[in-house]
Every structure is written in C-alpha cells, then in structure tokens.
Amino acid sequence: MKLILLSGGSGKRLWPLSNDQRSKQFIKLLQNGSEYESMVQRVWRQIESINLHDDTFIATSSNQEAILKKQLEIGDNQIIVEPSKRDTFAAIALASSYLYSKLGVSKDEVVIISPVDPYVTETFFSAFLKLEQLLLESDFTIGLIGIEPTLPSEKYGYIVPLKENSCEISEFVEKPNKDYAKKLIDKGAMWNAGVFAFKISTILNILVEKNITVDYDELLLNYEQLPKNSFDYEVVEKQENIGYLKYSEYWKDLGTWNTLTDEMSVNKVGNMIEMIDSPNTHVLNELDIPVAVLDIPNAVVSVSSDGILVSSKEESPRVKEIPKTFFQKKAYSEELWGTKKQLTFTDDIEVILYEMENEKELEITMCENSKLLKLSGTGHIFYNDSNKIIDEQLVVGSNNKKVLVQSVSKFKFLIIVEK
After folding, report:
1. The overall pTM is greater than 0.85
2. Side-chain-facing half-sphere of 391: CA atoms under 13 Å
3. Contact by Cβ (8 Å): 219, 212
4. Which Gene Ontology MF annotations are present (predicted)?
C-alpha cells in the first residue's frame, strides 16, 4: 500500500496567519508537549508512529515545496510537485503516474489518498490498512471512509449506504445544499472523510479512456490537458462499484478559526498580549507589537504581517467574504533558509526583513535602488562574481547584481528598495 497526502489550499480560511504559501496545515498552533506543531507535522508524526512514513508521498504545488521540506523530515522523492493548480483529480492522476512510471510500483498496488491535515488519532491511519483489505478482497474499484455527520453541511461529500451494516454504496453525492444534505442524512448517509482508495490500474485506465498519457514525464509536460476538476466529481460520482468503511472514532476538520481554536490548549499565542474580561477569546500575535483585548468574549483576534482579523468565533468562517485584495499581499513566507517578512506596503518604498537560520545560503538580486542593511547575527555577503567578503554594514545594489548571503549563526538583515 502507498499513501498519498494532498497538500494544497489558497490560504484564505485562517487568514491572516495563512496565505497561499503557508496554508492552514503549516501554521504551528497545536501543542505537542512544550512545543507547538502544525497540522502537517502532527499527521506526519502519527504516520511515523505506525511505520507508514516510508510509503507515504505528498502531492503539492511548487510554492509549498520549501515549507514542507522545512517542517518534515521527508525525502525529495516523496514530494510530488504539480506544475500548476488543477484541483484534486489532476493531482491524484499525476501522483499515481509518478508511482507507476517513475518508481515502478505495480498496477495492482492499492493507493490511499488522504488530505494532509485531518485532526484525528493514529487509529484513523490504521484504518487505511483495513480499507486496503476491503479492495483486495472485493470487486470494489473505489474505497471510501465514512464519518457520522453531526449536522447537514455543504462542505462534504455524502456516502449513502446500500443497506444498514453493508460496505456497499447506493449513491455518492458531492457537496449538496443543506436541505438535500439533511434528506441524505435521514437516509443514513455519512460524510466522506476525503479519503479514496483504489488500485493504480483504476486511475491509469481512466487516463487512457481520456486519451491522456500515463507516463509521468509526459504528463508533466501535458498537465494542462488534465480536467480541472475534483476527484469526487471527475471519478467518484461516475463510479458504480464503490465500497466504504465507517470510521467511528474522533475526526475533525480544522478548516476555520472556530474549529481550530476549539482544539487549542491555550488562548494566547505570541508576545505582548493582554486580555481583560474576554472569556473564550483567542489572540494570536506574530508581530512584535502589543495587542490588548478588552471585554470581547467568544472572539478570535489574529495578527500577522499579512493583516489583522477581529471576528466573533461563530462568524469566523465568513473570512472568505473579505475582499480579494486582502489576500493578494503575501507578506510572510517560510523558506528552507529561514523566513521573509514584508514590513511596508507603501508605493514609494519596500522593506523586507530576512531571518536566516544557521549555516544557510541565499542568493539575492540587488537592483540600483536597493540596499541591504545587516541587523544582527553572523553572516557573510559576497558578490557572486567574487570571493571577497563585503564587510560594510550597508550594501548598495547596482545593475541587478547578484549577492550571495551565507549565514553562520542566525542572521537578520533588511532589503530596502526605493521605487
């Protein structure tokens, strides 16, 4: 069995801490002992605990590759990078082709697809082994995991069992409206947990039927030919021979501020936070500025370089209604070498703070209007065409000349660009 985790997201649901590079699965807000971990780190730790990590791969976009490598101890050959974002069918097709044509995995191998960030216990991933057996011992072409619904929701697909205590499905409905979802629940329907199981041959056959190559390298070159559609709509709704397993233990989608804060063990994360008479309110502050909250109960206050959100918890899922321009300025990003944070948003000057970790390298192009100002830590700066270290505290750019920055210890500096 091979496990493929899908890592994507536009970074809107947990704005302003999340953006399209640091989506919700990468935000470190869940406590693990004395430290904080992200959702993806939690899931990877659980997968390691049941020894599935060597057979686990992550399908993601290029802008999330660096942060994945930074947060997880994962090999380069376990990350499958999509050339562009084309929804889950394309991502799953590319990953299946990678396993088959690059790694030589058998067509008869069972592949399990899962979101990269379910909030579950280890038993959820152990259930994948049972799902594999269901496919191997039956004629089902697709296997799913069903979750007992707590309310009619438009966020999930619905699995309608053929009959009680049966593994067969009579109907699969992807994201119905609330009224229809209620009718489905009355018929015994369950939420689809976002998990799909199939033999590699199933996906390869679908690609062949669509006259799309199954060779990984060719598929990369012709990626735009793949339908831009979810796997649920493109495959699952069209299949007739689908089985499922019911999962009855703890499962939760931490996709909004109200669901995430429910699972946080503290209500203040960050520096210089003061709350007075604000029960059940959470404050998360990534900046070095004071944040005070007075008499605001049941709220979330989130502060980052990308913006500030103040919302009641009940209405926090409406963050997607914020104007699109708010999401377009990605002021914070995590890279293999450290972090980058934009400090200004004016038309005449741009100031970006770079914080490099120990013994890292970074190449920067310096235009005529740019300056590099060293702040703290130990690092060396060279022009790319010279081995001579630049000793000056302030380095002035010229003619788009490239400089190489090497950190010895944690090295902090500014890039200032006058427009």
Report:
1. yes
2. 0
3. yes
4. mannose-1-phosphate guanylyltransferase (GTP) activity
